[in-house]
Amino acid sequence: MTKRLLASTATLALATALLAGAAGAQTVVTMNTVQIFGTIDPAKISDYTDYMAAVNLYDSLATVDSSGNLIPQIAESWVVSPDATEVTFKLRADATFTDGTPILAADIVYSFERLLRINQGPANLFAGVVESGAVTAVDDTTVSFKLSKTFAPFMATVPALMIVNSDTVEANKGADDGQTWLADNVAGSGAYVLDSWDRGSQMVIKRHEGYYGGFLANPIDEVRWIITNDEATVKALAASGELTMSSQFQSPDTYKALVDMGRFRMESQPTTTAFYLKLNSKAAPTDDVHIRRAIAYATDYATIREVIFPGESMTTVLPAGFADFWNADVAAPTYDMVKAAEEVAASSYAGQEIPITLSYVAGTLFEEEISLLMQANLESLGFKVTQQPEPWNRVTEIAADVATTPNVNQIFFGPTYPSPDSMFFTQFHSAAAGTWASMEWLQDPAIDALIDQARATGDVAEQARLYKEVQALMAENGVAVPLLAQTVQHAMDNCLQGFKAVPMQSFDYDMVRYSWSCP
Amino acid sequence: MEFLGFLARRLAWSLLVLVGLSVVIFVIARVVPGDPARMALGPRASAEQVTELQEKLGLNLPLYQQYGRFIGGLAQGELGQSLLTERSVNLDIRTTFPATLELVMATVIIAFLFGVPLGVAAARWKDSWPDNLVRAFAIVAAVMPTFFIALLLQVLAGYVLQILPTTGRLPTGTEFEADITGLLIVDGLLKGQLHVVFEAMRHLLLPALALSLATMGQMARITRASMIDVSRQDYIEAARAFGVPDRVRLFKYQLRPAFVPPLTIMGLEFASLIGGAFVVELIFSWPGMAAYGIRAITQKDLNAIMGVVMVSGLFFVLVNLLIDVLVGLVDPRIRIRGRRA
Q1: CA distance A497 to chain B (A)
Q2: How many angstroms from the chain centroid is the CA of residue A156?
Q3: Which of A248, A288, A387, B211 registers the highest number of CB atoms within 10 A of its CB?
Q4: Residue A49: phi, psi to the nearest 5?
Q5: C-alpha B241: how far from chain center
Q6: d(Cα B103, Cα B100) in Å, to the nearest integer?
Q7: DSSP secondary structure string for all residues of A55-101
Q8: Using a CB-CB distance cutoff of 8 angstroms, which residues of chain A are in contact with residue B43?
């Protein structure tokens, strides 16, 4: 009898403990990032980790889905004027900051003006498009943006404007527009709140249960980002059960080791980030279109894409992810050494040794391998190759001058906002010359005119026509050799669901889109 | 009085060293390729944004004016704003320095506790198997790169055996504020939170062990050599002739004078590890000042670079000063020699 009583009591206690545990169980996702979080101030964010934190801590008027479409967030709807120079947003009546106060039109105006005043981070997206004073609160839940000119990609840039609580920031404004305060604190309306941040090692955010936007079933309660780029550390974290999701920058060995553990699966999705060989069209010998075409023919695309750096094929300078704007009629570049030799023979440099510099980011093994592969092929055509590895710090400097820009440059470029304009204007328009993204020194009035026309029209079909024409012209001039469209890879716990690559900064790591599928 | 004069001279020299260091690092940090404003704003910032930040930071001023601004701030104890963390460098260093200090202290303690006895044992059984073993260990430990040892330990203890944590100072989610000294073990003890002390020690073990092996090997070799030197002294021979027991002779008469070189090395190591711990800090995601300094260098965060170097330099100078005093206490002959000089 006593034994039975004891057994019943123990069973009851165990059941109670299990139930209590289940009730209090938190779904924690731990992910490693390879660089620290620089800032969480939405007026200063610039790189992938900055955005990764910001999209969870702050909301915008609208956000982006995996197809690049805008989805309402703080705004429930918007109306674009017929001439596309004014956009009026209607805010959700139930939208609140994490402290419970309602989000008003005045907060949108304040956030925009603060962004312009600080003039860092996403401010350059609005420069010359929306001036100070052009964003006004019509009433508490209506805000109007008056554009200086018709600017078709404007709506695509809206998610980069993250909204701060104006009262909170004003109360902590100090002498620097709240920059010191917002470097450590959050005044946002995101689905998550900052729990702790140890700058050198980790950041932890927790789910804001009162989030106005709601969550999926079985949401992620806590997210821990551990900062390490060390492969052994990532494996150790995975083996100990701590890691839920790897960064997208691990080595193939690490991915394999994680998958072999059984708990992880590989998530691999194409992105709209392109990888190019950018050829300096203003410096000899790449100033000759035949030499540029010879380089394109001497590029072993399959080896690069399938062996050296995994990625999707690219046929034009625009990744196929921009489906509506992608020109399917442009022929894919091919690896053909016979044609490469014919192009060299047709060039003004035929019959002589042709000196050429191949540049890549120093310390990046796969870029070095690509450069060596190119060297082998080009030297067999009579080129005299000089390898020029440069630290990234210096790439931005040498790109500022035609004379210091090497002949061939390996450059990754992804859209800052989900519009083809982000790919074309920033890389191929003359206004962008002198930056690392435009090392072609194209400066072609015909291309500029097409890009400008596309920016100035609100007609999507017309934009598509113009952008397709740009792609055809770019294939002709051969200044940018499209190598591949990058794939994003993560080793992910089998229970974690929701990852979809988004063509804008780190919006794919907005954890409100994720859920936990295991009990 | 003579001692105070010695101290004053050393302090004056130390100040001169620090001023020299500040000039050298200031110039080096500025001639390294890369625009700090561009690095801070990210690759997609416009030229206008970069120019505005350059002006705000005073990067458009002549070098001597920039240096003047830096020294002016330093005189008031202000190291400026970090471009990397968007906070004051003072705060960053205040946050990260205790983590590095704790790591380095644990490193030196481990190196000292094992290195000195190994050296003594090697000297005691000179040319026999314990000596050969210690010498082999010392050479291997000294030549093996720290990053390799760190990765080896991490894979072994964290990945294969899974017995020790491999990142950070405490488990994620631990509610504990090290607001007394910043040293988790010390603050944990002071606050009576033994679980924090235990966890902090578990987290500390792998990085400290990885960092200590080279120092341990060096300390063992120097202790051995020094012990053998002293063992050839006449007074040791006399002690042996008088039948003084082996243990007494070894520890009382031989070890104390032989202790000066390892002590000096320990001081130098202690100070240089403050800057040299970055590999281990990066591998173990240890939120210390060395890793902060390396990130500052790669991002060309000028104020942070200057701050880390100046603090490391100050620490180096102070520790060496302290070691000089300690050596004088351990070996009175040095004090006397110093007085004669």
Answers
A1: 23
A2: 13
A3: B211
A4: -75, -40
A5: 43
A6: 5
A7: HHH--BSEEE-TTS-EEESSEEEEEE-TTSSEEEEEEPTT-B-TTSP
A8: 396, 436-437
Contacts of A445 (CB under 8 A, 6+ apart): A430
Would you mind telling me the total number of residues written for chain B in this entry?
Answer: 341
Contact A200 B41 (CB under 8 A): no
Q: Is residue A506 part of a domain?
A: no
B29 to chain A, minimum CA–CA distance in Å?
13
**How far B322 CA sits from the closest chain A CA (Å)?**
30
Answer whether residue A12 is part of any domain: no
In whole angstroms, give the CA distance from residue A458 to residue A450.
14
Which among A120, A229, A237 is the nearest to B167, CB-wise? Answer: A237
Going by C-alpha positions, the residue among B164, B167, B136, B178 that lies closest to residue B285 is B167
Q: Is A5 part of a structural domain of the chain?
A: no
- For chain A, 519 residues long, give each residue's pLDDT as a single digit of tens: 444 444 444 444 444 444 444 445 689 999 999 888 889 999 999 888 899 999 999 999 999 999 889 999 999 999 999 888 999 999 999 999 999 999 999 999 999 999 999 988 899 889 889 999 999 999 999 999 999 988 889 999 999 999 999 999 999 999 899 998 999 999 999 999 999 998 878 899 999 999 999 999 999 999 999 988 788 889 888 988 889 999 988 888 899 999 999 999 999 998 999 999 999 999 999 999 999 999 999 999 999 999 888 899 999 999 998 888 999 999 999 999 999 999 999 999 999 999 999 999 887 888 999 999 999 999 999 999 999 998 776 787 788 899 999 999 999 998 889 899 999 998 999 988 888 889 999 999 999 999 999 998 888 899 999 999 999 999 999 999 999 999 999 999 999 999 999 988 899 999 999 999 998
**CA–CA gap between residue B168 and residue B174 (Å, rounded):** 11
> A80 forms bridges with which residues in the sheet?
A87
Helix (H, G, I), strand (E, B) or coil at A268: strand
Q: How far is B170 from chain A, CA to nearest CA, in Å?
A: 11
B-contacting residues of A 85-144, CB under 8 Å? 119-121, 123-124, 127
Measure the CA angle with vertex A207, ends A89 and A18; round to 5°.
Answer: 150
* Backbone angles phi and psi of A379, in degrees to 5: -70, -30
| Whether ipTM exceeds 0.85 | no
The half-sphere exposure of A193 on its side-chain side, counting CA atoms within 13 A, is 11
Domains and CATH numbers, chain B: 94-299 (1.10.3720.10)
Q: Strand A496-497 and strand A75-80: pairing?
A: unpaired
From chain A, the residues in CB contact with B281 under 8 A are: 200
Q: Tokens for A113, please give them.
A: 């003006």
Residues contacting residue A511 through CB under 8 Å, at least 6 positions apart: A29, A56, A191, A192, A205, A220, A223
Do the domain assignments include residue A282? Answer: yes
- Asked if the C-beta of A397 comes within 8 angstroms of chain B's C-beta atoms, the answer is yes
Query: What's this model's pTM, rounded to 2 decimal places?
Result: 0.81
- Number of compact structural domains in chain A: 1
With a CB-CB cutoff of 8 Å, which residues 235-264 of chain A face chain B?
A: 235-237, 239-240
Residues of B with Cβ-Cβ distance to A198 under 8 angstroms:
168, 287
Query: Domain span at residue A359?
Result: 270-487
CB atoms B295 and A36 under 8 Å: yes
- The interface residues of chain A toward chain B in range 140-179, judged by CB-CB distance below 8 A, are 179
**Measuring CA to CA, how many Å separate B160 from each of A232, A262, B120, B156?**
11, 16, 34, 5
Place of tokens 């711990």: B277
Q: How far A39 CA sits from the closest chain B CA (Å)?
A: 6
| Cβ atoms A34, A130 nearer than 8 A | no
Name residue B264's amino acid. Answer: T
CATH number of the structural domain spanning residue A415: 3.10.105.10
